[in-house]
Amino acid sequence: MDLTVGIINHNNKELLRRCLISIFEHTINVNFDCVVADNNSSDGSIDMLRKEFPKVMIIENHENLGFSRAVNQVIRRSDREFIFVCNQDIFLKENSFLKMLYFMQTNPRIAILGPKIINEEGALELSFNKKCSNLIRCFLDNVFFYSFLRTKISERYLERFLKLAFNKMLNNPQPVGWLSGAAFLLRRQATQSAGLMDEKFFLYYEDEDFCCRMNKAGWLVYYFPKTFIIHSRGKTIHKTEFNCILESTKSQVNFYRKRYKPTVLLLIKFLILYRLSLELLPICLISFIRPALRKKLQYYMKTVQILPTL
């Protein structure tokens, strides 16, 4: 079984090293190569790869291209039938690739397969959703913070207090609307009809958009909990919370712009603006006494393209 493992990295040398060690240690009876798309790391990631993993192919970007463009670079570089895409903050504890590849080969309609994802404490991460986002989901997310509360409540309480019922619901392979981009197995053939990742997404929502387009093209997207991958969430070096909020907002607007007419999009922008105003209220108050922060806030709001169109 032929496989390319594509890892997207940005300034996480130690996590990348651990990820690669786990892949080479636990991947057995699979003919695979490994590609790292590095988004302009300055922490010595490239030197570490060349010294410690000479067989790993490197795509060395001289700027941070974002997740979608880096994933597309890996897909274009590979000539294998299957491509496993992941962040540098995951690692294996079993021969996960072999199990996933067998399932994909016996289910030729599946385009994307996502494993169970757990954190280092063993708690399950909700790494999929049964349906793609729509107007109802947009309303719930931006008015009642549904996605945030769903994740926190499910991961912290449901699994703990309703473990039997919760695990039964999530321990069977099942078709879903979309999967987390943290780790998934892709069938190359599916990209010929559905296309590659949309490079307009820098960060966030690119995985949902990709999976939803696969479903629309007639392929299946599947959650596969018969193997697991560990995700070191929280240990990755992220942008500031301020930047994350605005990058997420920009991607959310792009996601809905692709699916709704301008009149409906206007309503969506009002909902997003309501949520954004609550999240950024402390920053806005501070910006009155910090001109540099005020300019940065104005720049991002224009980039997100909410205020100018209202």
Keywords:
single chain, two-stranded antiparallel ribbon, alpha/beta, 12 helices, 10-stranded mixed β-sheet
Concise summary:
This protein is an alpha/beta fold and about 300 residues long. The protein has helices at about 15-25, 45-50, 65-75, 95-105, 135-145, 145-160, 165-170, 190-195, 205-215, 240-255, 260-285, 290-305, and strands at about 1-10, 30-40, 55-60, 80-85, 90, 110-120, 125, 130, 175, 180, 185, 220-230.
Describe this structure in words.
With about 300 residues, the chain is an alpha/beta fold. The chain has helices at about 15-25, 45-50, 65-75, 95-105, 135-145, 145-160, 165-170, 190-195, 205-215, 240-255, 260-285, 290-305; strands spanning about 1-10, 30-40, 55-60, 80-85, 90, 110-120, 125, 130, 175, 180, 185, 220-230. Strands 1, 2, 3, 4, 5, 6, 7, 9, 11 and 12 form a 10-stranded mixed beta sheet that branches. It is globular and about 55 Å long. The termini are far apart.
Spans of at least 5 consecutive residues whose pLDDT stays below 50 are none
Order of helices and strands: EHEHEHEEHEEEHHHEEEHHEHHH
Strand count: 12
| Structural class designation | alpha/beta
- Average pLDDT, rounded to a whole number, is 86
**Overall form:** globular
Separation, N- and C-terminal Cα atoms: 53 Å
Strand content: 15-25%
Indicate the percent of residues in helices.
Answer: 40-55%
Largest sheet entry: 10 strands, mixed
Number of continuous helical runs: 12
Rg calculated over all Cα atoms: 20 Å
